[in-house]
């Protein structure tokens, strides 16, 4: 599989250590991170043509990823 864009460590490099610490110590953050990772991989498979969904389904997935990322960012800023 080619490089998967939008990985949390790449999108928030200034929070790399904090991401790692929260994944280890905060169950809610860990679940959000895992959900984000799963969703991001699914979107990437669609982008590279390994999976096919309707345009509307892809848009919904992207919106869900954006909401998760926003929630993760808020937790990172607050910590």
Describe the overall structure:
The chain has helices spanning 8-11, 16-25, 27-47, 55-78. The protein has 79 residues and is mainly alpha-helical. The N and C termini lie far apart (33 Å). Helix 2 crosses helix 3 and helix 3 (27-47) runs antiparallel to helix 4 (55-78). It has one domain.
> What percentage of residues falls in helices of 4 or more residues?
over 70%
Could you give a short account of the major beta sheet? none
Number of domains: 1
Low-confidence stretches: none
- Beta-strand content estimate: under 5%
Mean pLDDT across residues: 94
Q: Give me the secondary-structure category.
A: mainly alpha
Number of helices: 4
Distance between the termini: 33 Å
The count of DSSP E runs of length 2 or more, i.e. the number of strands, is 0
What series of H and E elements makes up the topology? HHHH
The shape, in one word, is elongated
Rg for CA atoms: 13 Å
């Amino acid at each position: 599989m080619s490089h998967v864009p939008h990985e949390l460590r790449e999108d928030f490099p200034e929070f790399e250590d904090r991401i790692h610490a929260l994944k280890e110590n905060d169950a809610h953050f860990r679940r959000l991170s895992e959900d984000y990772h799963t969703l991001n991989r699914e979107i990437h498979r669609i982008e590279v043509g390994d999976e096919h969904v309707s345009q509307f389904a892809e848009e919904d997935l992207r919106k869900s990823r954006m909401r998760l990322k926003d929630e993760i960012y808020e937790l990172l800023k607050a910590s």
